[in-house]
């Protein structure tokens, strides 16, 4: 009995140590795969806003993208060429004061605020949920050739994955309280996300005049997906010079894509009456 017990323990220990070795080996191979993945990612150049990975090279970097398509964004909107269509109505916006910003993320291309469910717009009887807002600095769309210091994009997606983006220009003027709130979560390092979990009333960021230009374009970043319905508000909101400077300091710099060819597209406009 006394001699058999230590022998039993030895056998059990031997089995366990063997099993450990197998598990260690498995872990080693996982690590190797990860390393391989990292090496692979390094070989794949990521798109940026300048130099050899800048907008002119997006189609070489993102071969499956629509970045070389014929209906791309942004564009320069020339007011006199926009068709004043009587059937157009104000955008049917349903933003609530009780919807929370879930988190803020710096994806290296912009500062983005991801919203919880609740805000939406209705377009042609379809509901488009607000997913996120982000900024371009300076603006991407130009109006009569004018580039504003900042453009805010409110990105909405329908159940069947159709995209509507509302674009709001900001110019220097009176300071904006909602911007003070949004800026208080900055700076945020590239590649990081911070939980916000706070109510935010997006109505506060809308211009007083709801007149807009609308056209069919694309996402302005790879994969440059087309058939995005754009609504660009004619009237900018104002933020203070300090707020502009603060964003310039804390956001990815010059994160805008140049004007894309119109290629025969019509730009319609709604003028508030
Ligand atoms: Zn954008």
Automatic annotation (TrEMBL):
InterPro entries (UniProt xref): Alpha_CA_prokaryot-like (IPR041891), CA_dom (IPR001148), CA_dom_sf (IPR036398), Carbonic_anhydrase_a-class (IPR023561), Carbonic_anhydrase_a-class_CS (IPR018338)
Domain of life: Bacteria
Residue ranges constituting the Alpha-carbonic anhydrase domain according to the UniProt record: 45-271
Stored PROSITE patterns: ALPHA_CA_1, ALPHA_CA_2, PROKAR_LIPOPROTEIN
Keywords: Lyase, Metal-binding, Zinc
UniProt catalytic activity: hydrogencarbonate + H(+) = CO2 + H2O
Pfam family, one: Carb_anhydrase
GO BP of this protein: one-carbon metabolic process
Enzyme Commission number(s) of this protein: 4.2.1.1
Entry's Gene Ontology molecular function annotations: carbonate dehydratase activity; zinc ion binding
Cofactors demanded by this protein: Zn(2+)
Enzyme class: lyase
Family annotation (PANTHER family): CARBONIC ANHYDRASE (PTHR18952), CARBONIC ANHYDRASE XA-RELATED (PTHR18952:SF208)
Record function comment: Reversible hydration of carbon dioxide.
Record-stated family: Belongs to the alpha-carbonic anhydrase family.
Protein name: Carbonic anhydrase
Biological source species: Kriegella aquimaris
